[in-house]
Specification:
One of its GO terms (molecular function) is phosphorelay sensor kinase activity. The chain is an alpha+beta fold. About 40% of the residues lie in helices and about 25% in strands.
Length: about 775
């Protein structure tokens, strides 16, 4: 019967391309293998370019790189590892997940987020601006640290969870109580319009009987849920203007002092006849103007008035005398030193019992100090108004920024109070969960969206990471969980829970930022399936090589036996060419038998039992015995310094070192005795070994080719062999979680570099 063809080779490896899957992930991903490393686009953007091929540890901070290096070794040994690390330029922890990705390769996934609400709160607190979030009924839902400090109340006192001093109250600038219904927050909720720049006083009870009054400039901004017309909440932002108010009061007191001083020292008192003529001595007038009695008598006083003001001053005086109405006017009066001083002149008629005018009594008041005080006050008011306008603009910009930040964020964000009730939620949270913002606010978060696991099991409140953060105040990150949609189906999410604290350090609530990771879960599932297919394909390939090599031996033994019989029976009876053909046939059978044995050895790698502690000293002694014949035949020398103990399979490691040492003895230079030296040093959790010889060397373009199966660089007549030895060595080393490479200079020698794992923690040497 004709010989049947072997079954076709599985081609799963060619059908699975992991690079597009990894490149499409939004999170940073690194594929590590030996001295090579590959970064997807997100990793290049977050970490930067590799400084050198394989130098991936240089991308991470000094404290993070060793931690990841140890995790890579564990993952290369087949373990899935998760570590919390810090990335460059970040203060928040990042979750690093490392998974095996085939022989000698590890997949490193980084999950990095940023908390936008923390930035807004830091800005508000940094500017010293208070902020309250109140419900429609007036109850306080949230307050930042600056707001609690300005009001002198903790959040627990504002919400009624802790008692507050009953003497705490609000007042108008005139000191009257501020009714609750006229507060800016109440007006904003009633009208739906913003109420801005309202001045109110907060009377904070002092330690003794003296209370402290803080003056606040308050702006109340109503918050409407999408699709509604009436506000459901109000955000109140306020700034401390106690200093500005105190300054204004000081300016008013200064003005009053100026007026008192003028009244006490700068008034000119004068008396006239019923007809309005100055009579007798006028000491204060004479002292100020320097006029003599003769000069100011009658209407001579007008000569002391500024020429431009005389007509007006005289007309006003004549009208008052004629109509007997009080006299009041302003003009500039010449002082004795010749300087004109602004004056206000006022006079009233003194009447007799019969109603007739007896005399006029009046005063001139120096307005210089008053006008200077008024100018000073106007300047201070202008400065104060400018400062208030600047602070108002800052407050408005910050309010707009906070609103835009929460509204524009693609991640869902909601806040909780200490009892687990939702105090605020952004539109993204409502969209991702299918609830309205009104439905989310005020509801118990766990009962509404976190009540069951994805498989339907009830989610106990004590096991909920969000609830645990409310209890112990520790931030948490969860990469795999579900929230429940309003339509009743689970939404795969990853979220970060950050606690909020009051001035006394107690936990007042938490802020949760979450993402819908449905696409990421789908990509992860596809990646895991691809990895499973890859592992299955490798197993099938090994099984195929083993079976095929084993089945080839039977017909080969038959051919070899008959060739040997022909040679014994007919050698010398045929012509010389027939004897040569028989030699060729027997030689081919021997070479084929060697190839099959090497192929079987290659397929058997990985079929051995559990690893164990292996002293390298014993391995090298056994390898030295195996190459003893080659050492004696070549006159070569072998030395080693390997005191370490590694984790592996003794027989396989003896095979590796026998092959590498044997290569150094076989590929020697003509006329130069071969020398082979084996050295070892510890590098982290691995042992780095070097097998150095002084042979013919290998050109740079063949450094990788020599590790492929059936690859030879020299004629078989000069250097016998099948080209399988180095391929088997590399496969054995990689099965141990290590690497095998070489450096070489043609004509000088070659050094093989291999790494092997040290004992795992907790293991002891035999």
């Amino acid at each position: 019967m004709p010989e049947q063809a072997p079954p076709p080779l599985p081609d799963a490896l060619a059908q699975v391309d992991l690079v597009p899957l990894l490149a499409a992930l939004p999170d940073p991903v690194l594929l590590l293998g030996g001295e090579a490393a590959w970064l997807n686009a997100a990793a290049l953007e977050r970490l930067g370019e590799l400084p050198a091929p394989g130098a991936w540890q240089a991308l991470f901070p000094p404290d993070t790189a060793p931690l990841l290096a140890r995790a890579v070794q564990r993952a290369a040994a087949g373990e899935t590892v998760r570590e919390s690390v810090l990335l460059p330029g970040s203060q928040a922890p990042t979750l690093a997940t490392l998974t095996p990705a085939g022989p000698g390769r590890v997949l490193l996934h980084l999950r990095d987020t940023r908390h936008p609400l923390e930035v807004a709160e830091e800005l508000m607190d940094g500017l010293g601006l208070g902020m309250l979030v109140q419900a429609k009924g007036g109850g306080v839902l949230a307050a930042n640290a600056a707001g609690q400090d300005l009001l002198g109340l903790s959040l627990a006192q504002m919400t009624g969870q802790a008692p507050a001093d009953t003497r705490w109250h609000l007042i108008h600038p005139d000191g009257q109580p501020f009714p609750q219904e006229t507060l800016p927050t109440a007006l904003a909720l009633q009208t739906g319009e913003a109420v801005r720049d309202v001045l109110l006083g907060v009377v904070v009870p002092g330690a003794g009987e003296a209370d402290e009054t803080r003056w606040l400039k308050v702006t109340a901004l109503p918050r409407r849920a999408p699709g509604t017309t009436r506000p459901k909440q109000v955000t109140t932002v306020f700034a401390d203007v106690t200093g500005e108010r105190r300054l204004r009061q000081q300016m008013q007191a200064s003005e009053e002092r100026y007026r008192s001083l003028v009244e006490a020292t700068s008034q000119i008192v004068w008396v006239t006849s019923a007809g309005g003529e100055l009579l007798g001595e006028q000491p204060t007038w004479a002292a100020f103007t320097g006029q003599t009695e003769a000069e100011y008598r009658g209407s001579g006083w007008v000569e002391a008035v500024h020429p431009d003001d005389r007509a007006g001053a005289l007309a006003a005086w004549q009208q008052a005398v004629q109509s007997r109405i009080p006299y009041q006017t302003e003009y500039r009066l010449r002082r004795a030193d010749g300087v004109y001083v602004p004056m206000q002149a006022r006079g009233v008629a003194v009447v007799n019992a019969d109603g007739s005018v007896r005399e006029w009594v009046g005063v001139n008041e120096d307005l210089s100090a008053v006008k200077a005080a008024e100018d000073h006050l106007r300047a201070l008011n202008a400065t104060l108004e400018e400062r208030v306008a600047d602070r108002t603009r800052e407050l408005a910009d910050l309010t707009r920024f906070s609103t835009l930040l929460l509204t524009a964020a693609g991640e869902g964000i909601f806040g909780l109070d200490a009892s687990g009730r939702t105090t605020f939620a952004n539109p993204a949270a409502a969209r991702l969960l299918g609830h309205s913002v009104e439905r989310l606010i005020g509801s118990v978060q766990h009962a509404l969206i976190h009540h069951h696991h994805a498989d339907g099991r009830e989610y106990a409140l004590a096991d909920c990471p969000v609830h645990q953060t409310l209890q112990d105040g520790q931030p948490r990150r969860c990469e795999a969980d579900v929230f429940w949609h309003a339509q009743g189906h689970p939404v795969p999410v990853a979220y970060v829970v950050s606690p909020t604290h009051g001035p006394d350090g107690r936990v007042t609530g938490a802020v949760v930022m979450f993402q819908d990771v449905t696409e990421r879960v789908r990509a992860q599932t596809a990646l895991e399936q691809a990895m499973a297919n890859l592992e299955r394909s490798n197993r099938e390939l090994e099984q195929f090589a083993y079976v095929a090599s084993h089945d080839l031996q039977e017909p080969l033994r038959t051919v070899g036996s008959y060739a040997e019989l022909l040679a014994r029976r007919y050698r010398g009876q045929l012509d010389p060419r027939a004897d040569q053909y028989l030699d060729f046939m027997q030689d081919a059978v021997e070479r084929m038998r060697g190839l099959i044995q090497d192929l079987l050895g290659f397929a058997r790698v990985g079929r051995f039992g559990e690893p164990q502690p292996v002293p390298l000293e014993g391995v090298l002694r056994q390898a030295a015995q195996n190459v003893q014949g080659a050492l004696q035949a070549s006159g070569g020398t072998l030395t080693w310094d390997t005191p370490q103990t590694v984790w592996g399979h003794p027989g396989l490691l003896v095979q590796v070192f026998t092959n590498l040492i044997g290569n150094g003895l076989k590929f020697c230079r003509e006329g130069v005795p071969p020398r082979v030296a084996v050295t070892a040093c510890v590098e982290g959790q691995q042992v780095h070994l070097g097998v150095r010889d002084n042979g013919i060397g290998i050109a740079a373009e063949y450094h990788e080719r020599v590790f492929a199966i059936f690859q030879r660089l020299n004629r078989r007549e000069a250097y016998p062999g099948n080209g399988m030895g180095l391929a088997i060595c590399r496969k054995i080393v990689e099965q141990h979680g290590g690497t095998l490479s070489l450096t070489s200079t043609p004509g000088e020698g070659t050094t093989f570099h291999l790494t092997l794992p040290l004992l795992p923690p907790g293991r002891s040497t035999p």
